[in-house]
Design goal:
67% helix, mainly alpha, 0% strand, elongated
């Protein structure tokens, strides 16, 4: 990223997986002639958006956004574990790992 910020690739990957899963979920449901559950899709999109927001290391309330994204995505992954939950669960875990406190670097 430009304009004074580094990218946390764990958070970016979690957000990307979440949003890709949301798109895949919509495609899967439509291919089966069904309508995606709006609440489930909302959880995926909100989790992905929070993760991508927090991928910028200087984002305001970054850790809170990552914890929120991780929580939403882990719950979504567990709810969908029988079908598309595994990648969503991984996305949530990536966000939770990215939220861990880090020691200050002296570089």
């Amino acid at each position: 990223m430009t304009a004074g910020g580094r990218v946390d690739w764990l958070a970016a990957a979690g957000g990307g997986v979440a949003l890709s899963s949301a798109a895949g979920y919509v495609g899967l449901m439509r291919s089966q002639g069904d309508v995606p559950a709006g609440w489930f899709l909302s959880l995926l999109v909100a989790g992905g958006a929070l993760a991508l927001y927090a991928a910028r290391t200087r984002a305001v309330r970054r850790r809170a956004a990552l914890l929120g994204a991780g929580g939403l995505l882990v719950v979504s992954g567990l709810l969908g574990i029988a079908s598309i939950g595994a990648p969503i669960l991984v996305a949530g875990l990536l966000c939770l790992v990215a939220a861990r406190p880090r020691a200050a670097s002296h570089t």
